[in-house]
Structures are given as C-alpha cells and as structure tokens.
Amino acid sequence: MKISLDKTIRAMAIALDLAEISSVKDSIIIEDISNINFSKHNYLNHSKRTTYISLKLGEQLGLSEIFMKELYISSLLHDIGASNFLKESHITNTFILDHCKNGSQIIENFPIFSNISPVILYHHENFDGSGAMGLKENEIPLASQIIRLSDLVELLYNEEDPSFTQRAKIIEWVKLNANSIFSQNLVNVFLSIAEKDIFWFDIENISFMDFILDNISPKLDISLDLHQFEKIAYILASIIDNKSSFTAKHSRGIANLSWMVSQHIGYSEEKCLEMKIAGLLHDIGKLAIPNSILDKTGELTKDEFSIIKSHVYYTKIILDRIEDIKDISEWASNHHEKLDATGYPRKLENFTLSNEAKILCACDIYQALTEDRPYRNGLDSSMAFSILDGMTSEGLVCKNALAQLKGTLSENIF
C-alpha cells in the first residue's frame, strides 16, 4: 500500500486545528502578545492559512525547492506540540516553551523530513531575543522566523470580517514589530506581498477553496508505505490519548487488541497492520471535543453526549482526507455503530457494517470497560465479557466478533 505524504500531512493539520478549536471552547488562552488576546480566534483554518502566508514569504525570498518543502510541512504541523498541553491553561512563555519542545520531540519520530525538528522548536522565538528560549536574530532558523510572522498574521486575521476592513491594521501591526518580534528584512518581504489585493483575497477565501493552497504548495511526490504510516499513526495516537486523563493509552490498547484479533483470525500481515492503524486512529476525532466534556466525571447532559458522539464524525472527516486509506477510515469511524442501527453517527445496520468495524467495536468496548478511569476502577475480564455477552444478546454487538476477541485473549496473556 502506498499512501500520499501530502494528503497525510494535510489531514494531520486538520486534526491539529480541530484540537485548537476545542481548546478555545474551553477558554484557554494560547498566547497573549502586545495585549492581543487570541483565545477567541477561530482556528478552523489556522494551519492552512499560516502555511499559505509562509509559502508566499518563501516564494518572495526565492528559497530553494527543498527549503520550500520543509517550510510547507513545518507550517502545516507547527502546532503539533500544542495539543498535548491544551487541557491546561498556559500563557506566554510557559505554554510556548512546553509546546515547542514537545512538538520538536514529536516531529523527530516523523518518518520523512524529521530534520524539521529545530524549525518547530524555535517557531515562537522573537527576533530581539525576548522569546521563551532567548534565541535572537540569525540564531533563529529562517523557517522558524517565517512561521512566526505567518502564525501571528493568521491569528490577527478575523474570518468574520472582510479582509479589506482589516488589512491596514494587520500591516501596521507587523510594521510596528519590526526588529522586535520580526526582522526588518522579513517585514519588508511581507509588506511587498501584502500590498497586493490578491494576497488578501486568497487569505479570505482559503477556507473553502483548497486550490488556493494547492497552487502554491511544493509538489510532494512522496508515498509512505504502511510501516511509515504506522509511525505517524502512533504520533497521532499519543496526541489523542494525552488530551484527556480518561483515555491514557486507550488508542494503543485498541491497536494491540485489534492486531491480535486479526492475527488470530488469520488476516494477512498487511491487513493486520491496517487493523492496528485503525485502532490507533479510531478516536482521532476526539481532538475536536473540549476537555470540559471529555474529563467530566459526572453524567453527561443530552447536549454534552451529542458533542461526544460527534468525535466519530470528525474521525471520518480527518481520515477521509487521506484517500489511500479508505478501508482504515471506514473501520475506524464505524466503531460506535451497533447491529440494530441504534449506533452513531450513521445508524448503520448489521449488513452494512464490515467484519473489521465489528471487531473494532468489540475491542473498543472491552478496552473501555477494563481500563481504570478517575471515577472507577477497570473491570476484570470476566465482568467485561459478561457485559459484552449481554450486548450480543440484545443484538448490539456482533457475536462472531466477540467470540474472536475471546478466542484471542484465551491464547494470550494480555
């Protein structure tokens, strides 16, 4: 199986933007600069718009093809370290230091272009040395400086207002911060692209016109094999599980269970790995759910449960962006469907659900029941299977999938 690196990175960027949106719903202040509070910013297109601005700056600077590729990936994933810290309120240097270091460490495990780690590490440094790590001027990688300016311009931009009503204010703010947050040279480059109407029209319309970013993006004619994609899946699973104390190691647990069941059944090596990846990514949509709901110890309200249910919808939105993994996306996003069509989000019936989705459903319920949670201890295996047996009797969970799970665990010490 060959999987597009470009589409994978775009999907990851969507996931990271959703994570930042959920943090805003929890009223978390991500950064406060010059008395500008960004906590009310709409992050839905943050990565996409930041990347567009970065690439326009890089294009104007005449940077090399390889530099532009690294800038493209770094810009899309610049906040990859932030999502692990969004469950707490962080302001200025404390938050910046943690999320930059974390992002740098995460990206080191990226199977391709892992050399962009320093770019992520220093993308919040200020040109005058007043940033969290104290680097200044040419000590800061150029790509980091570009992302710094692009990131802040995007945060200043308000999607609810036409671009022509705010361009002058944004331009003036950038000019005022020359030789402090930004280098004078980079400010001059920004001013040269910001004087063109088309730049602001693109900024305004990039949310629903993908070709705007496509037209300027470097061509990443690179495919990942399934093992390389697995490494990315583990990165995302760590971000998902670290978002909430309730779900620590949950995705890895589902991945191990689904892989073991697949081996027990006799699936091919490739399919076993695909099932493991589906387990790693099945809850990626939870990045879109506010922690105030994920971490709630009491009973959820009807509205809160509706929000929780949306996580599988977002799982499919994110994974469908990677057209090469349609099966993995289908299995992962259907793990809350039930045989009697009472599941969510699509209320699919038994005959429309794949065996793989039914296996993931059984694994997910078993894993959730046996995990410790802050409000209860995990159940032992016999109690968990008793509950699952009841669910099969009610026509909710597939008997064959449950039997395969039981058979797997009877052969393994898990």
UniProtKB/TrEMBL annotation:
Residues 225-414 form the HD-GYP domain. Coiled coil: none annotated. This is HD-GYP domain-containing protein. InterPro entries: HD/PDEase_dom (IPR003607), HD_GYP_dom (IPR037522). Pfam families: HD_5. It comes from the Bacteria. SUPFAM superfamilies: HD-domain/PDEase-like. PROSITE patterns: HD_GYP (PS51832). SMART domains: HDc.
